[in-house]
Amino acid sequence: MKKINKIFLLAIILCLFANMLGCAKRNVNVQKNDEHRRQSWLKYINWDAERLSYSGKNIKIAVIDSGIDQNIPELNCKIDIETSVVKSNKESDVKHGTAVASIISAENHSDNQVNGIAHNARIVSIDVTNQSEGIVEVGDLIKGIEKAIEYKVDIINISIGCLKDDEELKSVIKKAWDNNIIIVSSAGNYMENNVLYPSKYKETLSVGSLNKKGKIISPQGDVDKKVVYFIGENIVSAIGNNEYAGCEGTSFSTAICTGLVALLLEKKNDKKSVKEYIENLDYSNGIDFIEIINNYK
C-alpha cells in the first residue's frame, strides 16, 4: 500500500472528534458568569477594541483547517468563502477550525458571546481535514494553500504541522510568499530544539506558545528558526453549537498572531515589513497589542 505522509492538527492529535485536547466545553446558557465572558487572555495581550484604532478591515484571511461553523453569531457574515479540498462529510467536526476563526475575528454582539482579535477581517475557510481519521494529508494541505493563493488572501493561518520536510509543501509556501501573502504557522506542541513544518520554512511566521506567566510552553530550547510567542493556554473561543472552550496549544497562539498581523496590515499594508516587525518583538515582558500597534511605523 502506498504510504501517505500525514499531518496532524496540532491541538487535537489525540481527540479532535471526541472533545478538544486541552479544551473544556462551556455552554453560555448555563455558565453565564464563566471565564468566557471575562476572556482573560485578551487582557493578557492588552487587547481593547475601544482603544485600538484597527480591526482588520478589508484584510482577507485563509483559515486552512477543519472547516468552520458558519452558524455561530460571532462569525456572522464574516466568512466570504467556504471551500474544501477533501470529500465532504455530513458529520464533519469543525470545532478546531471554528475555534481558530473565532480567535481571529469573532465579534461580540451580547454579554454571552466572545471577541476575537480582528473583528472586521474577512475569512476564507478551506477544509483540508480527513474527518474520518482526523488527519490532514500533505497533498491536501498543499491544495489548500494553492486555493488560498487563488483567492488572493492577505494572510494564511496554518494551525497544522508535521516533522518531515516535503519539497512540494516547501515550494507552495514559497509561492504564497512570492504572491505577497503572510503565512502564520504553528511551531508545534511539546517541541524541544525544533519546530514543525511548514513553520520551519523561512517564509513563514513560526508561532510558539506561552503560559499566563510568560514562560515558554513550546517550542523550548535552541531552535534554528526564529519563533514568536503568544499566550497558548485557556484561550476562550467559540466552537459551535452555542458552546465555548478554553483552548490550549500553538494552534491557538497562531490564531492570535494572525489577528495581530491583520491589525498591522490594516495600519500599513507592507507584508515584508509586518513579518520582520513581528519576528523581532520582545515577548519577555508580555505582549501588549496597543503598544505593538502604536510602535509600528
Shape: globular
CATH H-level superfamily: Peptidase S8/S53 domain
Find the structural class using helix and strand composition: alpha/beta
Which CATH C-level class is it? Alpha Beta
Biggest sheet descriptor: 8 strands, mixed
Proportion of strand residues: 15-25%
Descriptive report:
- It is an enzyme of class 3 (hydrolase).
- Keywords: Hydrolase, Protease, Serine protease.
- One of its GO terms (molecular function) is serine-type endopeptidase activity.
- Its EC number is 3.4.21.-.
- Pfam families: Peptidase_S8 (PF00082).
- With 297 residues, this protein is α/β, with parallel strands linked by helices.
- The chain has a single domain, classed as Rossmann fold.
- Helices cover 27% and strands 22% of the residues.
- It contains eight helices and 14 strands.
- Strands 3, 4, 5, 7, 9, 10, 11 and 12 form an eight-stranded mixed beta sheet that branches. A three-stranded antiparallel beta sheet has the order 6-1-8. It has a three-stranded antiparallel beta sheet with strand order 2-14-13.
- α3 links the parallel β4 and β5.
- α3 packs parallel to α6 and α4 packs parallel to α5.
- The longest helix is centred in the last third of the chain and has 18 residues.
- The radius of gyration is 17 Å and the shape is globular.
- The termini are far apart.
